[in-house]
Amino acid sequence: IAIHCLNGPNLNLLGRREPGIYGAATLAEIERSLQDHAARLDIALTFRQTNHEGELVTFVQEAGAAGAGVLINAAAYTHTSIALRDAIKGAGVTAVEIHLSNVHAREEFRHVSRIAPVCAGVISGFGPHSYIVGLDALAHLLRGQLP
Ligand code: DQA
């Protein structure tokens, strides 16, 4: 199976960005451990990041065209982007939403996700491990091992 892990705005700054909230790991370090985990599970993993909403939409469309599942940390676009929601729905991809922080324990504007209704599920609050848990869940879904 193939999975595209898509990362939204400001996640390129992980490691330096609000480490009290997001931890010390860089996005490159998260990618490395996720690639290791994906290899063990025989998953072809593509890892991408962009700061631009429209580019994130294009990434989703490309995952759909490639027949890949989508593991997505849309960062702030989670809470705002109807375009991203439409892209996930329109591309017909199976998607899992992930966050490093527990968005429900933070500001009220982070309690709303525009994309959650078109995702299979949400993993939030486990730091870099959210990526691992999300990948496992998505792989199970794509392999038909979950209802
Ligand atoms: C985030 C949570 C979002 O609310 C925030 O805008 C981010 C990161 C997370 O991974 O915890 O940029 O998606």
TrEMBL record:
<dbReference type="InterPro" id="IPR001874">
    <property type="entry name" value="DHquinase_II"/>
</dbReference>
<feature type="binding site">
    <location>
        <position position="73"/>
    </location>
    <ligand>
        <name>substrate</name>
    </ligand>
</feature>
<feature type="binding site">
    <location>
        <position position="86"/>
    </location>
    <ligand>
        <name>substrate</name>
    </ligand>
</feature>
<keyword id="KW-0028">Amino-acid biosynthesis</keyword>
<feature type="binding site">
    <location>
        <position position="79"/>
    </location>
    <ligand>
        <name>substrate</name>
    </ligand>
</feature>
<dbReference type="InterPro" id="IPR036441">
    <property type="entry name" value="DHquinase_II_sf"/>
</dbReference>
<feature type="site" description="Transition state stabilizer">
    <location>
        <position position="17"/>
    </location>
</feature>
<dbReference type="GO" id="GO:0003855">
    <property type="term" value="F:3-dehydroquinate dehydratase activity"/>
</dbReference>
<dbReference type="InterPro" id="IPR018509">
    <property type="entry name" value="DHquinase_II_CS"/>
</dbReference>
<comment type="similarity">
    <text>Belongs to the type-II 3-dehydroquinase family.</text>
</comment>
<keyword id="KW-0057">Aromatic amino acid biosynthesis</keyword>
<comment type="pathway">
    <text>Metabolic intermediate biosynthesis; chorismate biosynthesis; chorismate from D-erythrose 4-phosphate and phosphoenolpyruvate: step 3/7.</text>
</comment>
<protein>
    <recommendedName>
        <fullName>3-dehydroquinate dehydratase</fullName>
        <ecNumber>4.2.1.10</ecNumber>
    </recommendedName>
</protein>
<keyword id="KW-0456">Lyase</keyword>
<feature type="binding site">
    <location>
        <position position="110"/>
    </location>
    <ligand>
        <name>substrate</name>
    </ligand>
</feature>
<dbReference type="Pfam" id="PF01220">
    <property type="entry name" value="DHquinase_II"/>
</dbReference>
<feature type="active site" description="Proton acceptor">
    <location>
        <position position="22"/>
    </location>
</feature>
<comment type="subunit">
    <text>Homododecamer.</text>
</comment>
<feature type="binding site">
    <location>
        <begin position="100"/>
        <end position="101"/>
    </location>
    <ligand>
        <name>substrate</name>
    </ligand>
</feature>
<feature type="active site" description="Proton donor">
    <location>
        <position position="99"/>
    </location>
</feature>
<comment type="function">
    <text>Catalyzes a trans-dehydration via an enolate intermediate.</text>
</comment>
